[in-house]
Specification:
The complex is a heterodimer of chains A (435) and B (242). Chain A has 435 residues and is an alpha+beta fold. Chain A contains 15 helices and 10 strands. Chain A has a 6-stranded mixed beta barrel with strand order 2-3-8-5-7-6. In chain B, β9 and β10 form a beta hairpin. The longest helix of chain B is centred in the C-terminal third of the chain and has 18 residues. Classes of the chains: A alpha+beta (435), B alpha/beta (242). At the A-B interface, α2, α12, α13 and α15 of A face α2 and α3 of B.
């Protein structure tokens, strides 16, 4: 005889009862009751379906977008380290970003220092990058493009291999040759269908000879190469941008495992060169691919989470709908509750019955939601691949699917417990008398 | 013989309204019902006969007094223990049948088994036996809405029988039936009492129906007005009165 039970024992009892109750009968009975009011049940779970569908869809798209971006970053090769002028950006504060734009701490002198074997022994290549927007013209056609100045080694870093003509050479860089390799969009805007190779275009009123055309890479790159043009950095610095510094230095490590060593060597070299004793005063920042991957993952992760939580609000609304309909159901079935109690059901049996029914309702909604979310996610991946030309890979979001079903069951539990308690508290005799 | 039911000064008081208007539905009832008896409880409406049946059937608790069921006082029983007794020891038959709608006869009859310890593999066999004993095997897969009132009440009897209860409580079982169906129901109850040794407690306001019992307790204003054996020559089914 248990006369006084504390709350914990009661919880354990409830769970125990839930498990020992004839589960098969409970499931069958719940399904039957939901089926009796089929259209009502369907309308009730619609809220849950919509909520779970949007969460799955958002998480699936978020994952796809993240994979896409990370693939591109990793496409640059994990051996690349990016140096930027200005302080290491902490978050997205405008002052540090402005600092990075205005700073001119990376110049020829720094590049030469990094190339010295006794400073940074494990460096394979150092590639300077300068860029800016400039107006290009050919005859009467005008197009505003992004000019990227670099050495010939940038070819392998960005994987920009011309399908017509050639990329510029080491000699072109050294001789400050006025040559340019243009992206596919630039080509069509300036030349239309006619041949571009060997023609002369004007960039900031200086004549450049087109020596190569890049194949279309499509949207979704970090830099849209279709709307860009490549030229030797020497000539871009001098003739177009009128600057002496670099916006980036890409340092390529000889072997991937030396990355950390190279990062610290670079820091020491540049600090010595700039007489910096306190790392807080660094006038440059170093970013490895791993850093970038981490940053991007964090940003896309936060964005996905934010969108998913907006979608989760609809789940709360759906849950209130479930609670409402369960309360109606409890009132409608008062006599049934009375009868069940009269033939031997105790309060826990009744509680389990209605709780199971609510959870059944929401988990059906959850399954449908997961299914629809995955289907829509797959359709969107097809559209993005075929229409937008992205290298979008659809992956079945297993985690999100499990989460979606779990959340659905939980909502049934949370919003079903109150109606179920109301049902279980009814006294058998009053319930039987209910008209 | 030991009484299966023993009441000592049972009172049931309802506090209705804010001014505290008090209704004494049962005002001190003491009685004994022996194992195997067939008792009818009669009385005008408001006399407390239904309240008494509900207390006897563990659907309601008395306000004061002691109720011994099979020798045990039920005073300190928890909700679970009361549910257990309702499930194992007693069966209920209601005026309005109280069958689950849109549920097959066999599933209605099985209902008490769900809350019992009996293994699921035996449910069908037990349910079929109970349905056979009320002569409805041919209706086993029908739903209540496809049955006549008399048939529905027979399903309810089968449901009350399935756990082989000690006592069957019947609350105006013929109240919603025409006289012919009602008589058939009473014949079944009498058979259960005489040939299967179930104790039966029947609430009715019809003298004709009450005459199926061997003892009639009359209530008035929450008190026992009379408690007497039905003379054998008046009993229905014995053939002397008709």
């Amino acid at each position: 005889m248990k006369k006084s039970q504390n709350a914990l024992e009661k919880e354990a009892d409830l769970l125990n009862n839930f498990l020992t109750m004839n589960f098969k009968y409970g499931l069958k009975n719940s399904l039957k009751n939901l089926n009796v009011n089929r259209s009502r049940s369907i309308l009730t779970i619609l809220g849950i379906v919509i909520g779970i569908t949007s969460i799955i869809l958002i998480m699936s798209i978020g994952q796809g977008a993240q994979d896409l971006i990370l693939n591109q970053i990793q496409g640059m090769g994990s051996k690349a380290i990016t140096l930027s002028p200005g302080k290491q950006a902490e978050g997205f504060s405008s002052s540090s970003m402005l600092d990075s734009i205005l700073s001119d701490s990376l110049k020829e002198r720094e590049m030469e220092a990094l190339l010295k074997k006794n400073n940074v022994p494990n460096v394979a290549k150092v590639i300077p990058i300068v860029f800016g927007n400039v107006t290009a013209s050919y005859q009467s056609n005008i197009y505003r493009l992004m000019i990227l100045g670099a050495t010939e080694d940038v070819l392998d870093v960005y994987e920009v291999y011309p399908d017509v003509g050639n990329f510029f050479t080491k000699e072109d860089v050294a001789s400050k040759a006025n040559v340019v390799v243009i992206g596919s969009k630039v080509k069509t805007e300036l030349f239309g269908e006619s041949d571009a190779l060997g023609k002369t275009i004007k960039l900031k009123s200086k004549a450049f000879r087109v020596i190569g055309v890049l194949p279309s890479k499509g949207q979704g790159s970090l830099v849209n190469f279709d709307e860009s043009a490549f030229a030797p950095y020497t000539v871009v610095q001098e003739s177009i941008l009128g600057i002496k510094y670099f916006q980036h230095l890409i340092v390529e490590v000889d072997k991937e495992e030396n990355t950390e060593q190279v990062v610290s060597d670079i820091k020491i070299t540049l600090r010595n060169l700039h007489d910096i004793t306190d790392p807080k005063n660094d006038d440059f920042s170093v970013q490895t691919q791993a850093d970038l991957v981490k940053q991007v993952s964090t940003v896309t992760g936060i964005l996905t989470l934010f969108l998913a939580s907006v979608a989760a609000i609809s789940l709360v609304v759906g849950g209130v709908g479930i609670m409402n309909i369960m309360l109606v159901s409890v009132t409608e079935r008062t006599r049934e509750i009375g009868l069940r109690k009269a033939v031997g059901a105790n309060s826990k049996d009744i509680l389990s019955q209605f709780l199971l029914e609510a959870m059944m309702l929401t988990s059906i909604g959850g399954f449908i939601g997961v299914f629809l979310g995955v289907v829509f996610g797959f359709l969107i991946s097809i559209v993005l691949t075929n229409v937008a030309g992205l290298d979008w890979r659809f992956s079945f979001p297993v985690g999100a699917a499990l989460l979606g079903i779990g959340v659905a069951v939980l909502i049934g539990l949370v919003f079903g417990i109150y109606p179920a308690r109301q049902a279980s508290k009814k006294s058998p005799i009053e319930a039987l008398r209910y008209e | 013989m030991k009484p299966v039911i023993e009441l000592k000064n049972i009172k049931k008081i309802y506090n209705a309204g804010e001014e505290g208007s008090v209704t004494n539905a049962l005002d001190g009832i003491s009685l004994e019902i022996k194992d195997g008896e067939f008792v009818a409880i009669m009385g005008p409406s408001g006399s407390g006969k239904s309240t008494l049946l509900h207390v006897l059937g563990f659907l309601d608790k008395q306000t004061s007094g002691d109720y011994y069921f099979q020798g045990k006082n039920n005073k300190n029983y928890s909700d679970e223990e009361l549910a257990r007794i309702r499930n194992r020891e007693i069966g209920f038959i209601f005026q309005s049948f109280n069958l689950l709608p849109r549920t097959k006869v066999i599933d209605n009859v099985k209902l008490p088994l769900i809350y019992s310890d009996i293994k699921e593999s035996e449910w069908n066999k037990l349910a079929e036996q109970a349905i056979e004993s009320v002569g409805l095997l041919h209706r086993i897969n029908h739903e209540p809405s496809q049955l006549s009132g008399g048939e529905q009440q027979r399903v309810a009897i089968a449901r009350a029988l399935i756990n082989n209860p000690k006592v069957i409580f019947a609350d105006e079982p013929t109240g919603n039936l025409d006289s012919k169906s009602g008589e058939a129901i009473m014949d079944i109850l009498q058979d259960l009492n005489e040939n299967h040794k179930h104790t039966i407690v029947l609430v009715t306001h019809e003298t004709q129906t009450a005459r199926n019992a061997e003892r009639i307790i009359r209530l008035k204003d929450g008190l026992i007005e009379s408690d007497e054996k039905v003379a054998e020559r008046f009993r229905k089914g014995s053939g002397s009165l008709k």
